[in-house]
Amino acid sequence: MHRSHWVADGHVAELRRTNSGLSLVTGDGTLLPVSRTSQKLARERFGLVITSLEKA
């Protein structure tokens, strides 16, 4: 997760690949960036499938 954001694990709905990298999508649809250094940890922690490439 980016240092500017904090999300409780239970509110993460999916990981999404975007043009700018990787983002977390919350249950209400909010898209939050994941820092490059945290991307591997996010994939491992949430065990979620990366869904789509979204054009920014």
Automatic annotation (TrEMBL):
InterPro entries according to UniProt: LytTR_DNA-bd_dom
Q: Which PROSITE patterns does the annotation name? A: HTH_LYTTR
All copies of domain HTH LytTR-type, residue ranges: 1-48
Please give the Gene Ontology molecular function terms for this protein. Answer: DNA binding
Protein name per the record: LytTR family transcriptional regulator
Q: Which organism is it from?
A: Brucella abortus
